[in-house]
């Protein structure tokens, strides 16, 4: 599967060249031969292999799922895709984990490592899960929180949490800023997420910019 980012075409499936546009009006830049898996591996080199398959997903597995998720949530800008992959790769420790390991908060997880309240909103937005989470609210017991997390941690939904959060929880101003593909835009995105822009996070963003030709 290949990433293609363009004004209209956006992300497309296998066989297409990688085309990146920092903003909708910018010229397209071809990144021929780069698959979604290649790009994920470039941003998160440790994702090339998995020691355990319980939660961990390799770049080869995560790449196509992330590409599908970007299409589902209409994320077509190279800067936005780069930012979301940089964040999710960092939060999940190179896609090794789908739940919060330390301190082990109930209900926190997905590749975006969202807190339970966001996973509840995310699950409520997925038609296939609505009936399964009926009656669960933000005051749910820990076992209910973890049961809901297990639902959104399925591969079909796990990699959609990042683009879902970005398109539904970040303001249009933040979305436009990240579309520019620069450091200020990524900093604004981290502000939306509610985290500090540490050197570790910057390292993923730097690799993401290089992978999409934004550096």
Topology:
Elements lengths: L17 E3 L8 E3 L4 H8 L15 H14 L5 H14 L24 H9 L2 H4 L11 H11 L2 H4 L2 H9 L2 H8 L3 H11 L5 H13 L4
Antiparallel strand pairs: 1-2
Q: What report would you give on this structure?
A:
A hairpin with an 8-residue loop joins strand 1 and strand 2. It is globular, with a radius of gyration of 16 Å. It has 11 helices and 2 strands. Helices cover 49% and strands 3% of the residues. The protein starts with 17 loop residues before the first strand and ends with a helix. The chain has 215 residues and is mostly helical.
Tags for this model:
two-stranded antiparallel ribbon; single chain; 215 residues; 11 helices; mainly alpha; globular
Short description:
With 215 residues, this protein is mainly α. Helix content is 49%, strand content 3%.
Number of alpha- plus pi-helical segments: 11
SSE topology string = EEHHHHHHHHHHH
Distance between the termini: 23 Å
Mean pLDDT: 87
In which order are the strands of the major sheet placed? 1-2
Report the sheet-strand fraction. Answer: under 5%
Q: Helicity level, as a percent range?
A: 40-55%
Work out the number of β strands: 2
How would you describe the shape? globular
Task: Give Rg in angstroms.
Answer: 16 Å
Largest sheet: 2 strands, antiparallel
Low-confidence stretches: 4-31
Name the structural class: mainly alpha
